[in-house]
Amino acid sequence: MAVREQRHLAIADSDFAWLRLAIVLVTGMALLVGMIRVGSPMVWLIIGIAAVYAVANSFLDLHRRFRSIFTYRTYAFLDLLLITLLVYFTGGQNSPLFLLYGIPLSIAVLRYGADAGAAYCLVTTALYSSAVLFHGLNGTFHWLTQIGLLWALYLVMAYVYYSDDTRQDKARRRDELGALHRAAAAPIHTGDIPTVIGNILSGALSATNCCWAAVYLYEEKDDRFTDCYSLSCSDLDSDVKHETPWVAPSDILYTVIYTNSPRNTQDLLSDKRFQNSVLNNGIIRSAVIMPMFAPGAKRVGVFVLGREEPHRVSQHELRFASTLAVQAAVSIHTAFLFEEAKTIEAAKEADKLRSQLLGTVSHELRTPIAAIQGFASSLKCADEVEIPKEMQQDWINEIEQNAERLRRLVTDLLDLSRLESGALRMQMEWQDMNDVLDELAPDLQMIAEGRNLVVQVSDTLPLIKCDAERIGQVLRNLVENARKFSPPGSNIVVGAERYENGIRVGVLDEGEGIPPEYHDKIFERFFQIEGASFRPQKGTGLGLAICRNIVEAHGGRIWVESSPGKGSIFYFTLPVTGS
Amino acid sequence: MARILVVEDEPSILKLISQNLTLRGFDIEIATDGETGLTRAREGKYDLILLDLMLPVISGWEVLRELGNQGILDRVPVIVVTAAAREEDEKRARSLGARDYLVKPFYIKELLQCVSTALSSHNQAGRNKQEKPSRRSS
């Protein structure tokens, strides 16, 4: 009896269980309506057995747990036996329960194909005939008529089955096309390699009856398998990227890669080639392994489709797997190229930023040098044109101031580059912020020149771990900034307070404030507010960038709260433990 | 004596240029941002404009373009004085109509040279213009 397994099923397992339950229900109905008058205890016993039997194999899922004993063939025979007994006890050839034979017959044909249906019909004929013969020939209908009806039903069902088979072929082709489409389109929507491979794998599983699909990526340079991606039909939503197992050089995966030819096995447990293979993973029994090549004969890896049970791979399945592998290779290759292009793009962008910065730095350096060179060369012209004494003195002062500005610019640039590269390490020590502020106060007072500096501290500050020298630099920068942007005579308040898991230090000014759209940008180096009515004259344009780097190196955060016309408060936080 | 407008926001450079030119007898007016510079150039009568490119409010580029659009460049030559040292900046400034391009830092002699060249060629051009109608009338 050639039972067809692994077809695309017209009826799913669960439907099968429900149909089986239907047998019991119809039996029950028929008995209630017509047969109750028979009243034999034997009938009730059989009904009881039928109910227990059907409920058991419908809901307890016996056929999954005891697959070896409870094959579908066993069930089929049990069904037939049960119906035959019912027919016998309810009137033999006159029994309307004869119609029940139609249900298992339909199931047999639809689920296992016309061959199975024919076998079912033969067994039914034999059982029914013997039941009728034992019961005695006394009915209105001839038993041969009944059997004729049964075979007629079989012919109808077989016809349905074969037309259904064509339909399933179409469905399968549609699934396969869908899988190919998904594999081809995967890199269009996302360049992310795990997602691309995930799409290919889930497409492969949905188009075949395979329960496990995998891609092993191969690195030609090192001659080894670098990454493993797999997907199992029992857990379609799980992550496809897996820890890559070590693939032994004798593994069949290498054979496939080196020979550029597919391999398949009916049962890998009994196949020597698979003895030490990573595919012998306890999940699959049969497998198809396809090599994957990208344009230029570049070895990309291998593509594996596996099943939980032993299986002879058909020509069609091989063809489909190989087509899918070709498409998968191209898609994965595309995704790799895309990723590479992105890296190059990022490097280019960094290059552009660097040259932009160089341009800005050169511009910033040129201005003080221009003043120094200009005034110095002007002083040298004293013999051509008369320069008043005070003017000469003023020019010398200008030269000095600009030299100082140049010195600061160079120092700041160096600081910033060391901070950004991480070369400047913070000297972390436990500090009381009150002491730090006390110590800094005279210095800050001087920087705040012309403004009224107020230092406020709180008694309940926790000790924090920080580099007092660098925090002093941050505060000096912030106070200097506050002075530059606020009118003479206004207040500048510096204060510290407990905040979250550390402290927060604020520097408040009563200046013109900063429009909200610049609150982030002002911490970028050389940023100047566009269209500002004036430009701070002595700044290097690096102060706030340095502050941010120092604070972040402490694991803190710096930000500004401000609105135009209302002054600004610059805050920075320092966690107790440091970074 | 020639009237010169200096548009420059760096106080040191502004002082450097204006004081040196005043000492040499030029009549100097100053503007410290692009917008004021543009207004002055439009309203005043100048023989020469010295223009920085990095200016607050409106950039020097914008000022230069506006001066060109409003036809002021035809009457008054502009010397760009800037720290933008790239060649493409100079090309762009010249294509926008700048007469000369002086990169900071510079020696004061270079500036004076630029100024006198611009003024003399401007005067030359002015005289040529005046001569044309007289020739036609004769």
TrEMBL record, chain B:
Residue ranges of the TM segments: none
4-aspartylphosphate modified-residue sites: 52
SUPFAM superfamilies in alphabetical order: CheY-like (SSF52172)
UniProt cross-references to InterPro entries, sorted A to Z: Bact_response_regulator, CheY-like_superfamily, Sig_transdc_resp-reg_receiver
Keywords of this entry: DNA-binding, Phosphoprotein, Transcription, Transcription regulation, Two-component regulatory system
Keyword presence, Repressor: no
An example molecular function term from Gene Ontology annotations: DNA binding
Domain Response regulatory span(s) in chain numbering: 3-119
GO terms for biological process, alphabetical: phosphorelay signal transduction system
Protein name: Response regulator receiver protein
Source species of the chain: Thermobaculum terrenum (strain ATCC BAA-798 / CCMEE 7001 / YNP1)
